[in-house]
């Protein structure tokens, strides 16, 4: 039972264009949503988060949008850079728990 | 230390043998988590330690898996009688307390790649 789903295993984008990574969830008790970035042979690193009471959070080139009615969130990267090439994990935590539930990840390729 | 340290970085073991994976969290971080990532899969929660509270073991896949955290710092994940399906990257993470990680995420180590042959 996957509570956090990333249906696109990979995405390829041209340098300078926008990258949009999507994530769907099923648990309405999730109160924070997070994005992590992972390079090969390294652990994931925290990128950006959004509270369930907001619909947008922006940090530099990265913006996360949350649509609670659709149980959907997305990460926008603009402009995309070759160094953004990595696996991006969508994740969520619920109000009562301490563990984070992760999606399967989307591999982003940014072509120069 | 400056980051979360895991050892060994790679481990190849024969089926049926026991293995121990070590995690040294960031100094002062009271919460410690173990996850694993199997090939082509997302991160699967295994176990969570918070201070002196009883650990949340709800993610351990079988009784062959156990973990302990001594002195509120270093943690060891033990897998007994390893099976081929145990092959994965085992990731440890730590965080300050219980509120921070929900909005500021965890700090992960680089992981231990376990291969059972």
Characterization of the model:
The complex is a heterodimer of chains A (112) and B (117). Chain A has strands at residues 4-5, 10-14, 19-25, 30-38, 45-51, 56-59, 62-67, 72-77, 86-94, 101-102, 106-111. With 112 residues, chain A is an all-beta fold. In chain A, strands 2, 4, 5, 9, 10 and 11 form a 6-stranded mixed beta sheet that branches. In chain A, strands 1-3-8-7-6 form a 5-stranded antiparallel beta sheet, with no helix packed on it. Chain A is globular, with a radius of gyration of 13 Å. Chain B is mainly beta and 117 residues long. Helices cover 4% and strands 45% of the residues of chain B. Chain B has one helix at 100-104; strands at 5-7, 10-13, 19-24, 31-37, 43-50, 65-69, 75-79, 88-95, 107-108, 112-116. In chain B, strands 2, 4, 5, 8, 9 and 10 form a 6-stranded mixed beta sheet that branches. A 4-stranded antiparallel beta sheet of chain B has the order 1-3-7-6, with no helix packed on it. The longest helix of chain B is centred in the C-terminal third of the chain and has 5 residues, at 100-104. The radius of gyration of chain B is 13 Å and the shape is globular. The interface between A and B is medium-sized, with 26 and 28 residues.
């Amino acid at each position: 039972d996957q509570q956090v789903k990333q249906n696109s295993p990979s995405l390829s984008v041209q340098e300078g264009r926008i990258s949009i990574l999507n994530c769907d969830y099923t648990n309405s008790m999730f109160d924070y949503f997070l994005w992590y970035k992972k390079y090969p042979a390294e652990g994931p690193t925290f990128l950006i988060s959004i509270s369930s009471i907001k619909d947008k959070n922006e940090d530099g080139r990265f913006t996360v949008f949350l649509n609670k009615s659709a149980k959907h969130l997305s990460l926008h990267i603009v402009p995309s850079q070759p160094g953004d090439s990595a696996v991006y994990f969508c994740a969520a935590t619920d109000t009562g728990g301490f563990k984070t539930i992760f999606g399967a990840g989307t591999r982003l390729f940014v072509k120069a | 230390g400056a980051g979360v340290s895991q050892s060994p970085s790679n481990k190849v073991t024969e089926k049926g043998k026991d293995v121990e994976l070590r995690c040294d969290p960031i100094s002062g971080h009271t919460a410690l988590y173990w996850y694993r990532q199997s090939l082509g899969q997302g991160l699967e929660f295994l176990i969570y330690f918070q201070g002196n509270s009883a650990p949340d073991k709800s993610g351990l896949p079988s009784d062959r898996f156990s973990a302990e955290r001594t002195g509120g710092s270093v943690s060891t994940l033990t897998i007994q009688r390893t099976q081929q399906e145990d092959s994965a990257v085992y990731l440890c993470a730590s965080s300050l307390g219980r509120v921070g990680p929900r909005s500021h995420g965890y700090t992960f180590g680089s992981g231990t790649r376990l291969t059972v042959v």
